[in-house]
Specification:
Rossmann fold, six-stranded mixed β-sheet, Hypothetical Protein Tm841, Chain: A,domain 3, globular, about 325 residues, about 25% strand, 14 strands, alpha/beta, homodimer
Chain lengths: ~325, ~325
């Protein structure tokens, strides 16, 4: 295992210390592994909390800040945070207007956020949860009953965060989060595995000219393996899978996301193929992200997430955001 | 070779087409491989042109936009663009106040930009060049007489771009670019090689537990090879090399840059070590970047660039910037 780390035991806390040193806009509770806005909760604003296993950076901690999340809980690599962390985060962002939990659909995350919501309720904090499940690759997966939550999480955090910033009540913020999830679909491809530091060896093995279609963000098995082929052919498989689930027509927000080890030159090439595909299917990409937003450590590969925009969602997408991982317009 | 590409022959143009599809703020001349601001030259503003081999994305094309570059020329992967491209870019950004060429110190780039400057001069465009040579690792290198130009290029493009945006004349913009270069030092480390698409095999070989200290951004040999060791020890070697060349005290702008295949969780851990080192040596990191800014395809590894700030340079660093690769404050 070749990694730029001190030890598998400290990889998460070392990164949290680095985030704390780099971003004065954030307050990092290293002991509890919770990242919050340094300014504290905004009175009267719905608080947004997300979290999950580490190894997907910049998700979620990199999306804490104005116009997006109020706090993120970091688990160990590819391991759900525990309810106590989520409770610390929930209490830390409570501005009196309730808290939204944004939960990727993995069984551990869902159960732990559910428990945290109950604990928060005991302390008089109203919590609503939205579960993100946009991955069309497989119906059930290694760690998940139902579809996995992947790239749409970035869209949900951005758009719900914008609405919360405008002072909308909890029910409306939760509704827009659910709407974004319902209008989004994703599919991922791995060219290589990744190595969880504590495991010390690759999560899975792929042959020299083999790729995995429909991979999960923890390296969970996808639909099938296939030979390496040109990017245009790989993108067609990805987009056919998404399009079969929800036709990619109309105005679209599209993310071509790197898994962590794929360089930007390749992601832009893939975006070009996605753009050609959607144009050929009556779709129009009116907003986009190309880069590393929800990663799987150093895995080589990419995912595509398509969200069907409305004017309201586009307006919320365009609203100012100021986080380490996403920043514009302010 | 496992890459998300259509073919080695089209990797650069496919990426340029993707950049064009993704960013309406940019005008991409795919035939000439030049990326310009869509709005065209700003009358009375000094135009900033940079460029170099592809494979270092987001550098340089991702830094075209308000507050930074006016145009970037893309060569083939790890290959200098030709003078004709540079001339197209220079003419395309000429707003009547002259043009600054920002050139990384590689022999091919330097010669070609020099020829382009002469061609532009023949057409009545005043050009000044600044050569970036911040890499302390080796005195001469595979493609370079003198020090290589690496991470400081990002700082030069940002800070000179800000001054140009304020309407400063060419001599002042060139002077601040040279000042940033003189105040900056870099050092890089590779954990793995990268593979140039046209070559089809890794540029160099490293053993399973071996790293290369002082690597260049094209995989050029560094100072020495060493066993893999904890991030804290690797960072100490990096920072000792930088500190030996120019003491890391005072107010610093620091970039911990990923080589393309190293995930953000590791870069933040490394930033934490850099932060501890500078604090221990009388330095204060008052601005920072952590992420992939000047890459080497899918290479695993990182580089550190340290720039000694003045109040003026910090103010220019903070000025609004709106490019695909760097964006804030506007």
């Amino acid at each position: 295992m070749k990694k730029l780390i001190n030890s598998p035991d400290t990889v998460v806390t070392d990164a949290l210390a680095g985030i704390a040193a780099a971003h004065s806009s954030l307050a990092v509770d290293i002991e509890n592994k919770v990242i919050l806005r340094a300014a504290g909760p905004t009175a009267g604003k719905v608080g947004l909390v997300s979290g999950g296993g580490s190894g997907h950076e910049p998700l979620h901690g990199g999306f804490v800040g104005y116009g997006m999340l109020d706090a993120a809980c970091a688990g160990e690599v590819f391991t759900s945070p525990v309810p106590d962390q989520m409770l610390v985060a929930t209490k830390g962002v409570n501005g009196g207007a309730g808290v939204l939990h944004i939960v990727k659909n993995y069984t551990g995350d869902v159960l732990n956020f559910q428990m945290a919501a109950e604990l928060a309720d005991d302390e008089g904090i109203e919590v609503t949860s939205v579960v993100v499940n946009d991955d069309v690759a497989v119906q059930d997966s290694l760690y998940t009953a139902g579809r996995r939550g992947v790239g749409a999480t970035v869209f949900v955090e951005k758009i719900a965060g914008a609405l919360a910033e405008r002072g909308a009540p909890l029910a409306q913020v939760a509704a827009v989060a659910a709407e974004v999830n319902e209008r989004s679909r994703s599919f991922g491809v791995a060219l290589t595995s990744c190595t969880v530091p504590a495991a010390g060896k690759p999560t899975f093995d792929l042959a020299e000219q083999e790729i995995e279609l429909g991979i999960g963000i923890h390296g969970e098995p996808g639909r099938t393996r296939a030979p390496l082929q040109p990017a245009s052919a790989i993108v067609e498989i990805v987009m056919d899978a998404i399009n079969a689930d929800l036709a990619v027509d109309g105005d679209l927000l599209v993310m071509v996301n790197g898994m962590g080890g794929t360089p930007l030159i390749e992601l832009y090439g893939a975006f070009n193929e996605v753009s050609k595909y959607t144009t050929g299917h009556g779709g129009r990409i009116v907003r986009n992200l190309v880069g590393n937003y929800i990663t799987s450590l150093e895995m080589q590969g990419f995912s595509v997430t398509v969200c069907h925009l409305t004017d309201t969602l586009a307006d919320l997408w365009d609203a100012p955001v100021d986080t380490p991982g996403l920043r514009w317009g302010r």
